[in-house]
Amino acid sequence: MQHDPANAETYNRNAKAYAAKISALDAPLRERLSRIPAAQRWLVTSEGAFSYLAKDYQLKEVYLWPINADEQGSPQQVRRVIDAVRANRIPVVFSESTISDKPARQVAKETGRKYGGVLYVDSLSTQGGPVPTYIDLLNVTVQTIAKGFDQ
């Protein structure tokens, strides 16, 4: 606003409206997750890219590999997550949009758990795709997680 003080009011109004849209996504997810027994509130993903989201929603997190790992979906990584899913009776497994869903689907299949779908973390789609804006990315990811936990 330092460079365009004449439009400061417009910028502030738009920022508040955008923040309100983001906040509106929060309540439905919190309400749905509150129905899941605390011991089963785990976010299982392929890549450890959702730590902030997991922390914000009091989810424990388990993932096949850390962000930008050299190994992705090794037998050891898959086995570790399978063991964690079984031990903690975790009901659902997710994958990310930018990588193969095969390791996450393998974990779901071998544990008899639900594959919850694709989460979006760091890339938007084209205008005609599922997440052309950041608000769409948040909405689709939140709805996918909530739906994945529906029993």
Automatic annotation (TrEMBL):
SUPFAM superfamilies: Helical backbone' metal receptor. Pfam families: ZnuA. One of its GO terms (biological process) is metal ion transport. Gene3D superfamilies: Nitrogenase molybdenum iron protein domain. The keyword Metal-binding applies. GO terms for molecular function: metal ion binding. It comes from the Bacteria. It is found in: Cell envelope. InterPro entries: AdhesinB (IPR006129), Bact_metal-bind_prot9 (IPR050492), Lipoprotein_PsaA-like (IPR006128), ZnuA-like (IPR006127). Keywords: Metal-binding, Signal, Transport. One of its GO terms (cellular component) is cell envelope. PANTHER family: HIGH-AFFINITY ZINC UPTAKE SYSTEM PROTEIN ZNUA-RELATED, METAL-BINDING PROTEIN HI_0362-RELATED. Belongs to the bacterial solute-binding protein 9 family. This is Uncharacterized periplasmic iron-binding protein HI_0362.
